[in-house]
Design a protein that fits this description.
The structure is a single chain. By secondary structure, the protein is of the alpha/beta class. The protein has one domain. It has eight helices and seven strands. The chain has a five-stranded mixed beta sheet with strand order 3-2-1-6-7, with helices on both faces. Strands 4-5 form a two-stranded antiparallel sheet. Helix 4 packs across helix 7. The longest helix is centred in the middle third of the chain and has 27 residues. The termini are far apart. Its cofactor is a divalent metal cation. GO terms for molecular function: hydrolase activity; metal ion binding; nuclease activity. This is Protein ANTAGONIST OF LIKE HETEROCHROMATIN PROTEIN 1-like.
């Protein structure tokens, strides 16, 4: 799959905001263990923590569940974080080799501070300027809980992609009956490409299900303590770290101009 152009990344980001209320997000990254038969002469290389042999697919999906980038061939015993660091995807992100657009202000942000475009991932991945991960659960405040919730809305797209792909293609419903790793990797890549083809041919797009009462003003009321506690957090340091960016995004999500009507009941 070719690396998207800046225009394509911008289109993906706009769709993420429209569907999942996640501004400047350009993709969701995760790894999936593809079950395989034991490959001869590999020992326990592909034996994973789930106690079966697998090859890991590292993938990034867009807001509609289509794969943007895929990479396979990683031994099942490796962790997602280790695989990501070793992957071309991780190296491209580290070296600014993904053609991401220049930073732009978050929607409705009165500060108009340019915020970088970023991917989302789970706790297994590193926190970087262009890769947002949830706050650690042991240190959660209400603001951090809301950040984690907002992030999870966008992060689930890649999980749904894996689920749809596994249900659609019978070859993934049981261990792949092949002992040649090159062939196995080609099968996995082919399935990902066919997944995208079918999604686009059928015109499938996500329609988020939102369950809240539009006539209930409590759903639209931002708690006073959030306004009070975050009214001074309006600036980013001149030298921005990944933690600074996550903190700014956390504060942004609880502002009246960026909060979701139902996030308070779901998180607090």
């Amino acid at each position: 799959m070719p690396i998207p152009t800046e225009e394509k990344w911008m289109s993906i980001a706009n769709q993420y905001y429209r569907l999942w209320n996640l501004p400047n997000c350009v993709g969701s990254i995760d790894g999936k263990h593809i079950r395989i038969q034991k490959v001869p002469n590999t020992g326990s290389t592909n034996f994973n923590y789930k106690t079966y042999h697998s090859i890991v697919l590292m993938a990034c999906s867009d807001a509609d569940g289509n794969f943007i980038m895929i990479e396979t061939g990683f031994a099942g015993r490796n962790s997602d974080s280790g695989i990501f660091r070793a992957s071309r995807m991780g190296r491209w992100l580290e070296r600014d080799g993904l053609n991401l657009p220049n930073p732009r202000p978050l929607p409705n942000d009165p500060n108009e501070i340019n915020f970088p475009f970023y991917f989302v991932a789970d706790e297994a991945f590193p926190l970087k300027k262009n890769l947002m991960r949830p706050n650690p659960r042991r240190t959660l405040t209400n603001k951090k809980r809301i950040f984690n919730y907002r992030l999870s809305r966008g992060r689930k797209t890649v999980e749904c992609s894996f689920g749809m792909m596994s249900q659609k293609f019978q070859v993934l419903m049981s261990p792949i009956r092949c002992t040649n790793e090159i062939t196995i990797n080609n099968i996995i890549r082919s399935v990902c490409i066919l997944h995208n083809f079918i999604r686009k041919r059928e015109g499938r797009q996500y329609i988020p299900s939102i369950d809240f009462d539009v006539n209930n003003p409590e759903y639209f009321q931002v708690p006073n303590e959030f306004i009070r506690d975050n009214q001074d957090q309006n600036e980013l340091p001149r030298t921005q770290t990944a933690r600074d960016l996550r903190e700014y995004l956390s504060s942004y999500f609880v502002k009246p101009y960026a909060s979701l009507p139902w996030q308070w009941n779901n998180c607090v």
